[in-house]
Specification:
The complex is a heterodimer of chains A (68) and B (272).
Chain A: H1 2-9, H2 18-22, H3 34-37, H4 41-56
Chain B: E1 5-15, H1 20-36, E2 40-56, E3 59-72, H2 74-85, E4 89-96, H3 99-111, E5 121-122, E6 135-136, H4 146-149, H5 157-162, H6 169-173, H7 177-202, H8 207-221, H9 226-235, H10 238-251, H11 258-271
Antiparallel strand pairs in B: 1-3, 1-4, 2-3, 5-6
Helix pairs in contact in B: 7-8, 9-11
The chains are: A mainly alpha (68), B alpha+beta (272).
């Protein structure tokens, strides 16, 4: 499937790539757990780091009521 | 003795309320400070004024600047001190670029030298433009193939890629990461518009079945990750979901993933 090849190819999750990151957040802007998204563990760690950086730079909200 | 130089990425937000000249001046000062302290500037990207996700110092917009430079580690603390002192710089983030980040940067530049690093909706004008679309800050090249050539004139670049993306998953997955991300997001948008088309056409023939099959097809070919677990549970409720989707789709074909939205709606209904 196209998504699994995408993730394994992706070496670095850029915090500036909010389009990609938003897929792994719910509508409240919370980071979805790995058991829901089924991503590899290193991907999840990078994702979390990217989300927190993006939130610091106000590219993503900390709390939202309709992120999507 | 030669000092080891590291590559850094600095992103900072400038107060958008001050005049353009002052913003330019400030950016020039920061860049000059870095190069005077022995830094070698690789690139300065200005993303322009963007709406902030939350207000910073009571301000809702900020002028983003992104800088890549090479410098020794000792000057970073001093540079950050300068950024801290200046009242017009609202936030900053300095990252040391490791090999992975550098490779990612090179790849991005090789793919499209003109695109800025930010891949996000352009939200200076608020959440949505009047026609319900989002403008993109990064460059998006619409994928024009035989399939799309005869299609109705698209309002935005997104919609032009929307219409063909279902059949083009294989091709789109072969493209570079970032473009692929964009096209997949557009496929999400496409799901909505495709369902509109299909629901209108096939309403007379087999309403529930055709939508279900198109949904499952669309699911299998397009989406897998965040929505898949939720979607699987929502598949059981497909009749209810189908009717919900029809009403949603006819009301406002917003560029959102169908599954996620319905799941959220069902959740809200059960919660409330």
């Amino acid at each position: 499937m196209s998504r699994s090849t995408n993730i394994s190819e992706l070496e670095y999750i850029d915090f500036k790539n909010t389009e990609l990151i938003k897929r792994y957040l719910n509508e409240q802007g919370k980071i979805l757990p790995r058991r829901v998204t089924n991503v590899p563990s290193n991907f999840q760690r990078q994702l979390t780091r990217a989300v927190k950086r993006a939130r610091h730079l106000s590219l993503l909200p900390f709390v939202a009521d309709s992120l999507k | 003795m030669s000092v080891e130089k590291n590559t850094y990425e600095l992103t900072y937000i400038v107060n958008a309320v001050i005049s353009d000249d002052q913003i330019k001046d400030l950016i020039r000062r920061v860049t000059a400070y870095v190069s005077d302290s022995g830094g070698e500037i690789i690139e300065v990207e200005e993303w322009g004024s963007r709406r902030l996700a939350f207000p910073i110092q009571k301000k809702r917009n900020g002028y983003y600047v992104n800088m890549y430079f090479r410098a020794s580690g000792t000057m970073i603390a001093r540079m950050e001190r300068v950024l801290e002192i200046d009242d017009n710089i609202l936030r900053y983030l300095t990252l040391k670029m490791d090999a992975k980040m550098i490779r990612h940067y090179e790849k991005r530049k090789a793919a499209d030298p003109d695109a800025i690093g930010l891949i996000a909706e352009d939200r200076t004008r608020g959440p949505k433009d009047r026609d319900g679309s989002h403008k993109r800050a990064g460059t998006v090249k619409p994928i024009v193939t035989e399939a799309t050539k005869g299609d109705a004139t698209p309002k935005t670049q997104e919609e032009s890629t929307d219409v063909k993306s279902e059949g083009d998953d294989v091709a789109s997955s072969a493209e570079k990461d970032e473009k692929q991300d964009e096209s997949v997001v557009q496929e999400e948008n496409d799901e909505k518009s495709a369902e509109v088309d299909e629901s209108v056409e096939e309403k007379d023939d087999k309403p529930a079945e055709s939508e279900e099959t198109s949904e499952t097809e669309a699911e299998q070919t397009e989406e897998k990750d965040a929505e898949s677990a939720e979607a699987e549970s929502s598949e059981d409720d497909s009749p209810a979901e189908v009717s919900e989707e029809k009403s949603d789709v006819s009301d406002e074909p917003a560029p959102e993933a169908a599954k996620g939205e319905d799941q959220a709606e069902e959740k809200k209904k059960t919660d409330a």
